[in-house]
Design brief:
Order of helices and strands: HHHHH
Shape: globular
Radius of gyration: 10 Å
Largest sheet: none
Helix content: 55-70%
Strand content: under 5%
Mean pLDDT: 94
Low-confidence stretches: none
Structural class: mainly alpha
Number of helices: 5
Distance between the termini: 13 Å
Number of strands: 0
Amino acid sequence: MKNNVKIARIKASLKQEQLASRTGVTRQTIGLIEKGNYNPSLQLCVAIAKALNKTLDDLFWEVE
């Protein structure tokens, strides 16, 4: 699953650890999400979007 979480996190000047802390998951989980190796729950997707001040579409909508 491709997403824009890493790009948005870097633009927000956040480390994986900081985003993880804000969303209640581990740094490893954030890393797996960014690599597309983890399918987060809708609740976690919303938390990530809020933490990065983005919409779900900004982060998770695949553009071909």
